[in-house]
Amino acid sequence: MLRFWYVIIISLPYIIYYLAKGSYIEKNTERYSEADRYRVALHVIHVMKRNGRIRTSVTGVENLPAEGGYVLYANHQGKYDALGIMDAHKKPCTVMMDAKRSKMIIVDQFITLIDGCRIDKTDIKSQVEAVRKVTKEVKKGRRYIVFPEGGYFHNRNAIKEFMPGAFKCAVRANCPIVPVLLVDSYKPFEINSLRRVKTQVHFLPAIYPEEYEGLTTDQIAKLVRNRIVDAMQQKACA
Predict the structure, then answer these.
(1) What angle do CA 113, 114, 119 make, to 5 degrees?
(2) Which run of H or of E encompasses 43?
């Protein structure tokens, strides 16, 4: 958390500027496209990375579907996860996030800026509505980041089981599933140090509807997790 608060303090002028800009955009949504909002979000991420001394290496961009909506499913390690993926993903995308965590200062405004989906994991109705929202928007061409582990707690590079329910939106949207491997993504905001850190984002080959057709969400969850685990093991042996 040391780096988190350090970045906020030294980035305060930028934060005030971007919060004001985000508020203006929300009041004038008809004048700003998703691409416009995403550019602002990327500026925020770039400032945070520079001031936080964070570098992220990226592979597999060629695995991202060229057109249409899709869902990116990644292992979950910490607060930097979605930011690292977005920084590596140049086309606009957004994220499904736990409603409680999304209400943190700055995070709240950021999720609003990228028009993310907030989900209350303690409320079945909220979960159903979140799946409907993501399904509908992916069908229209939006791209979503989902963390099927459901959370993180000092798991670092260990990968927990994936929740089958997280895959309902992709199945109902009949869209490509993009497994994403995050390596050392916990380091920026979990390690109490201001030393330079490097994280990794690896976009793995997409799984298209014809490949998962006929599988249950439980089977799809295992398929996606196995691909991410295998990729993690390959990185560890490299």
Answers:
(1) 105
(2) helix 34-52
Closest to 151 (Cα-Cα) out of 106, 198, 101: 101
List, for residues 176-220, the tens digit of each pLDDT value. 999 999 999 999 998 888 899 999 999 999 999 999 999 999 999
Strand-strand pairing, 94-98 and 117-119: parallel
Backbone angles phi, psi at 97, to 5 degrees: -135, 150
CB contact set of 84 (below 8 Å; sequence gap of 6+): 56, 182, 185, 199, 201
Whole-prediction pTM: 0.94
Look at the alpha carbons of 210, 219, 217, 180 in this order and tell me if their dihedral is positive or negative: negative
C-beta separation of 76 from 163 below 8 A: no
State the DSSP code for 162.
P
Gap between the Cα atoms of 56 and 83, Å rounded = 10
